Every structure is written in structure tokens, then in C-alpha cells.
Amino acid sequence: MLSAITVIDMTEGVAGPYAASMLGDMGANVIKVERAEGDWSRTAGKHGIGKVGSTQFVALNRNKRDVSLDLGTADGRRIIERMVSKSDVVLSNFRAGVMAKLGLDFARCKTLRADIVYCTISGFGQDGAYAQFPASDTVLQALSGMMNLVGEADGPPLRVGFPVIDLAAANNAVQAVLLALYGRLAGQGGKQIDVSLMAAAMALMNVTFTDHLISGRLPQRQGNQNAQHAPAGAFAVAGERYITIAVLRDSHWKKLCGALDLPVLAADPRFGSNALRVEHRAALDAIIAPVFKTKPAEFWIAALRKADILCGPVNSFADIIADADLAAGLPLIEAGLEGVPRMMGNPICIDGAYFKAEQPAPARGQHTREVLGEFGFSTEEVADFLRAGSAFAAE
Fold first, then answer.
1. Looking at domain 6-204+333-392, what is its CATH homologous superfamily?
2. Is the pLDDT of residue 336 over 90?
3. What is the CATH number of domain 232-314?
4. Strand partners of residue 350
5. How far apart are CA 391 and CA 368, in angstroms?
6. pLDDT at 270
7. Which of 45, 213, 235, 236 could be joined to 292 by an S-S link, Cβ 3.0–4.6 Å?
8. CB of 331 within 8 A of CB of 355?
């Protein structure tokens, strides 16, 4: 769908690589430009896949080709400037000012390609006192207040166990790039885009933050409970498992009372509305929690679904794979790499199909010769670049 679009992917880590990979999923010609040391995420975690590196790198860098350059050399800069001049999108996620030091700020890239779509993913934006501070998903979970919302009411703040802010920012960046490309078709020219991790984090919490702006109240940690509804949260069941339920309407509350065989609860004035149930959450949980512990997850899920109650087991990844009906609706795709039987792909389903990993995550410099040739450098020039250390190719 984006086969006419070339993206220069100058990103490392999580947010930028994931954004570029999603554009690659959509058919864009994505060229990852790595420095000589390589993307630091190649060495993340405990597991590595051959020359490609970590499973994190594999997950975030499909559907792109890889060129390795030393942008500190004159030839390295000449190569990247030619690539930018013939591309549509430049995507980076370095700290504010780094692209300018590389000679590739928006003004320069716009000189090279007048209608360039230039997208940066930053920690705190490009201006202001925070712009020069380093940022990561964990740091932003703390600074944004997200970590302060996660955890038990009487426990310490907790980190969400995956890079939720990085991934949200990546999705925001893809939306912005697609919007700019659409605008370019209408003659609006190129655009300068910035998506900050801080702004992406706050946007994820827009309901909670808006409530604070209106009421002045500070949200409290709720553990597995939903602060807006009751009963809504995770409950222990027999067999050392948990299920989660969410009662959103009073009609569902009455159905839940029936499913739990507790008709007296439906008439209890303490629980007559959602607001009252939220107010008396502790008393309500003290009544229904012991009931849930009397039967296993399978019993309760069947009974609650029959009563049309929102519910589900608290699954592990292994539980998801073992549930053939649940897994059948997921974008589990072939990764195209030895040792990686499948990977989680792009969640967008179009005409009944998910995007594929047409190009597996590349080794550093795997496509240097191929790509530089496509940008008009002769075989002899490429060989000279490699000998001089301005470019690098996988062995």
C-alpha cells in the first residue's frame, strides 16, 4: 500500500524501530541506517538470534533493509544526503539536537528534499528545559505519573511490564506520518513532526488526567480494580488462578448477582448503582471474593458468559497459545529467521489478512551494497566506502 514510499529509518531501541517496522508492514521501502556500533537493542535481553541479535530487535525490525554508515565521515554524510534527497520520510528518535549535529536537521533535509516528511520521536519534545534530558520508557512511566497509578492501594508504585509508552509513541508517529503523506498528495508539501514520549504517555491517561484537571483529585492506586466501576477487577478462583470481570451497567449487576447465586445482593441498597458500588467497593468485594474462590476459572467463565457478563481468565502467554480459538484471531506470523518459528505481527487486519514479514529483521549492514547501488553509487564507489570505513557490510 505504501510501495511508492521510501523511509530512512535512523532509529534505535523500541519506539522508532517499531514505528518504522509498521510502515514497512504497510509496504514502504524502509531502509534502516545503523551506526558502526549498531542499534543498541541488538544486545538487549538474554536471547540472541544469530547475527541479527536480540529477540527485541527481531520483534521490532521486520520489513526493513539495513545499511551501516559512519556519518562522521565525509563520504558517510554524502551517502546519507543522497539517500534523503531520494526518499519520502526521515524517521529518528535521538535526543534533541543529535540530528542537527549529524547535519540532518529538518532545515537541511528540507533543502535536500523539499516535500520531505520529517518525524522525530523524542523524550520531551525538541524545545524547553527537558529537551536535552535522556529518556526511556521506564523513566517516562515514572515522570508521567503512570507508575504512580499502577500497584496495590497500600503498595509501592509499579512499572507496567512492557514498554507501553514507547509502543504508544510509535503508533502516534505512524499516524502522523500517514497524515503528512496524505496531505502531501493534496499539495501541502512536507511536514515536520515530533511525537514525545511524555505527550504519548499523558495521552494514554487522558481520562484520568482530565478528571484531575476538573476535580483537583489525585487518582489513587487501585491494584487490579477499575476505579470507575464496581465490581470490576481481578478475583482469585479455585486452582490458584484469577479471572477478571467488569460490570458496566446496572442491568449487568443484576445478572452477576444471579450468576453468583446471590439474589439478595441485587436488593442491597449499598449496591443499587455503580456510584454506590464504587463507594462501597470493599464491602462488596468482601462478599463476592470468597464465592469466586469456590469454583475454578472454567466454571466461572462459562457461567458469566452465559449471563452476558464481561469476563475473562487472567492468562499467561502459554495460556493464549494453548487456546486455539483465541490464538486463531492473532497476527502470529512467520518471522523468516532460523530459530524464530513465529512472531507477533501488526494487529491491523485488511481484507481478512494480516501483514506478513516479507523481510525478516536484518543483520547490521546486511543490505549496504544492495541499497547503495539502488541510490546510484557504483560498485567501485561502494567498495571504496567499505575500505575507508565510511560504510560497513555484513560478512
1. Crotonobetainyl-coa:carnitine coa-transferase; domain 1 (3.40.50.10540)
2. no
3. 3.30.1540.10
4. 353
5. 8
6. 96
7. 235
8. yes
